[in-house]
Design brief:
Two copies of one chain form a homodimer. Chain A is an alpha+beta fold. Chain A has nine helices and 14 strands. In chain A, helix 3 packs parallel to helix 4 and helix 3 packs parallel to helix 6. Chains A and B meet through helix 1, strand 1, strand 2, helix 3 and strand 5 of A and helix 1, strand 1, strand 2, helix 3 and strand 5 of B.
């Protein structure tokens, strides 16, 4: 961390004047600098041939530091993953902070460092940004907006309209880890466990799937807010088909399962930040699964269900004991501010 | 406004579940819908040939409604203008809300309507977005991030590196209006005046300048936070040259001047949202001025100064009576949260 003559963020850091310049020079520009950012214009200028994907997210997670990551790498990975779900490799990103007066500079620096590392790992450049400061009590330490641009794989034909009955639904790994990590922290629970957020970029494994199976991949989605059940409901609604899920195939870790049980939450509705669902043609489902299992974070990947022409618009869970229950779209808030 | 069974924003609206869907369907999608937004993916996919400009801003202005506009059209115009300053015509925009629990739905609806109108006027499409909700006391009613993409004029060669001694500095209209409107509101002052924010899009007039004078236009910048003086300091520093300003040429309205005097503020440091500075070659300066004065909001446009090889890095104001004073980059916060 650079030697600065202030320990916390003050209103002057958002003025657009000298203090803003000192703040940006000390951190953002030194850590994230590149040919675009260094020009310090009102925006950045570049070219991006082919199909472009754009995605935006504002991150308001509380607490801002958690096992497995912090709001900084979460903000980068979150937008990288939204681009990946469009079948794109991330290229450029904008980065916008809303800081609360009084934010500790060490924390801000740690978050910036995580952003730098996450960007380097995902091979994405921060090319433009913004910093605002609000008075104490008008924000919550730090909110981050990331908006990303990526280049879509030429063979990608992704979307609800490509989904058809018979398609298989794959999950890339165990679910409910991110949400339960945050929830446990917030409840002050000390689990004797290794539970930590699964925040990580997913673009490379998605790219590999598209490279090898191109048009057999019909849909990608990362089950963040609302969890696996909400994404499956979206699929059922948008594709106007049914979703049938096999409970015994669902890869749920003991740690996450235990935390859910203790807090009375259904893991299928808990947020994730490092897994995705793929809807693929039945013919290629096993081959896709094999590819996923060869990925370092995909050892527990599974085919968890199927698209049906029955019960269009609904998601039905087939229990291990043969029972069936509906997984509705929830209207109540299970876990506020998990991203 | 649609008939909804809730009057205010609740935490459930940020859950990613049913309530989020109801909120989005009721407003965002019905008002802003287009072929990209209607697909409701994690991102939007499109093509954009040529040079692309990208710019981002988070808007945290307080109060959120003010004479001349609100946080909604401000957020659209602000990003449209940052693109315009890059020499671009706006095309696509992402829109991300951070709402505070308890926000009045009527206010949210009014803001959405303003966003829709501002987008229509600027011919920009909202193609992807995000909505988060934070607890009461952890935000301030509404923060908005807009990130825009535009197509850069093929002839645009803009940047500090193109500025050279002898170039003239033009201003497109009277300054200090936006900042003084907000400040007066916040201080509860009732001026017997027509003072209102100058928030408006600037892309068309910038485009016309580039169409007609192409490479004679060296630099555009809108003097938002920090005002005219801060932008001129940026120019002096980045171009490593001096800036000499003629006080008698500065187009300051009586209303704004009066408010500044009453509050003891220097209008040159007060924020604007609807004017820009252009640095142009001396040969074309008068012709550019003529074009500007033909624009409906440019009647008071003026050539306010010149780039010099003397005093590089500094901005010097030549007073109407022959005195000279330095305009430094301020380190204190004159007007917090004016955008």
């Amino acid at each position: 961390m650079p030697d600065l003559n202030f320990d916390t963020i003050s209103m002057a850091h958002g003025s657009g004047g000298k203090m803003t310049e000192i703040l940006l020079k000390s951190g953002v520009f030194s850590l994230l600098g590149n040919e675009w950012l260094d020009q310090r214009g009102d925006g950045a200028v570049f070219s991006l041939p082919g199909r472009i994907a754009m995605s935006t997210d504002s991150f308001v997670i509380s607490p801002i530091f958690f096992p497995g990551g912090n709001i900084g790498d979460l903000a980068v990975n979150g937008t990288v993953n939204d681009l990946a779900m469009c079948g794109a490799l991330p290229r450029f990103m904008s980065l916008s902070f809303i800081l609360e007066e009084g934010l500790d500079m060490k924390e801000f620096w740690n978050i910036l460092s995580s952003i730098r590392n996450a960007c380097a790992y995902a091979n994405v450049q921060v090319i433009t940004g913004d910093t605002k400061v609000v008075e104490r009590g008008k924000g919550d330490r730090i909110f981050i907006n990331t908006t990303g641009l990526g280049q879509v794989h030429p063979a990608a034909k992704l979307g609800a309209s490509f989904i058809k009955p018979g398609d298989r639904i794959l999950i890339s790994g165990p679910f409910a880890r991110h949400g339960m990590t945050i929830m446990s922290l917030r409840q002050g629970l000390e689990f004797d466990s290794n539970l930590e957020s699964d925040t990580r970029p997913l673009h490379l494994v998605c790219h590999s799937l598209l490279e090898q199976f191109s048009e057999s991949i019909h849909f990608f989605r990362d089950p963040t807010r609302g969890g696996v059940a909400s994404v499956l409901n979206e699929i059922a609604t948008q594709a106007n088909c049914g979703v049938q899920l096999q409970e015994r195939e669902l890869p749920l870790d003991e740690d996450a399962a235990g935390a859910c049980e203790m807090l009375g939450l259904d893991p299928l509705y808990v947020a994730n930040e490092g897994i995705f669902l793929a809807v693929v043609s039945s013919k290629k489902a096993e081959a896709c699964l094999e590819l996923l299992r060869g990925w370092e974070h995909g050892k527990k990947a599974a085919i968890i269900g199927e698209i049906t022409s029955e019960h269009p618009g609904s998601v039905v869970l087939q229990s291990a004991f043969g029972g069936r229950r509906l997984l509705p779209l929830l209207s109540v808030e299970q876990l506020p501010r998990i991203c």
